[in-house]
Amino acid sequence: MKNKTFFQCQSCGYMSPKWLGKCPDCGAWNSFAEEKKEPASRRSSITSHLGKSEPQPLSAVTSGHEQRTSTCIKELDRVLGGGVVSGSVILIGGDPGIGKSTLILQALSGLSKKYGKVLYVSGEESAEQIKIRADRLSVNSEDIILLSETSLESVIHTASKLIPKAMVIDSIQTAYTEELVSAPGSVSQVRECAAKLMLFAKRSDIPVFLVGHVTKEGAIAGPRVLEHIVDTVLYFEGDRGYPYRILRTVKNRFGSTNEIGIFEMSDAGLLEVENPSELFLLERPLNVSGSVVVASMEGSRPLMVEIQSLVSRTNFGMPRRTSIGFDFNRVNLLVAVLEKKIGLQLGGMDVFVNVVGGLKLIEPAVDLGIITTITSSLRDMPVDPEIFVFGEVGLSGEIRAVAQAETRLKEASKIGFKRAIMPSGNSDKIKGNFGLEITGAKNVEECLDAVFN
What is residue 149's predicted lDDT score, i.e. its pLDDT? Predict the structure, then answer.
């Protein structure tokens, strides 16, 4: 029988009987590749061994606490929700050279020391290349088994005989299954390989780590269905100009999706940052206009972060607005609030806002810090280095209450701050001042008066 062919978008998985220049689903250009349709008998082999599932009432289902395995890396355990769950599938994505393989190798080292054999499957590097990295990281364990293989059937056969405590596939784009004729890295191959690995993990209770490439837009390469198949999705972020790396949870079926882990890249590998607030404020300039510290929350972790701004008269007809580490549209909104409610003349000014340390802040509680630092730079008035702020700003200039105010105050008090400017909705409800002078503000005007007067 003649094989039927079709064209599939390599970005979103959209299928078309003919080649298209632009995908009508996701809008990607030149993303269609020709693939062959497989017979149903071959495609059904992936689920043939699952058996039938009988319906049962919810009350008859027994539940218990999932068994977690520590990686001996506290920051990684934090973003995973306390450790690796048996039988889970974890996808780690990030830019090339960001440190994904380094993190995986360090995690396997910790797992092997406590629990026994682990399997590292590499489709991109040879065993000798992995050994060179291991020597640099001072990792030398007989329980780390290396396998340079791209055939998924061979990988699963080896893992079934070895029965490791954990398995890594580096990377999922290089793996292929012999049931499909399409090239490795295509939508069909990535989806089929991920589904097979998921079934293997659930049946054997072996946690599987998948390393994924990212596209120019920062999303994991391949279909979005890959993120739906796995249990946990982690993104490894970092600016090449900074040694810090942030491991952020995007999806987690066994824990919170708001946690982050912070690492510092060094010659000896990734080092955990136990007190990131002090590290980010280490080189903060004092008594300089356009600099303020804001208390932000990343999951359950409070972070004291410096925000800087530069406001200068523009030399062009259209003033520039630049934001690094914060939403550009949000900065424009806050500039409009300052112009309308405070009367600041920013129409002919260039406004540059930067979050120091390469962090990306998305929490609304950072709004008050943006307002304060722009005003400080425009007026050329420094903010007292012992003051920190936090709060959400509304379009009418009101300051709204935010969550976990007491946690932010505790972190600031521990570092050495003396005064807090915060929403009055929070200041009226907190119990204790934690050794801080607390000032509640109902609107932006009250906040600026408290900071600069």
Answer: 92
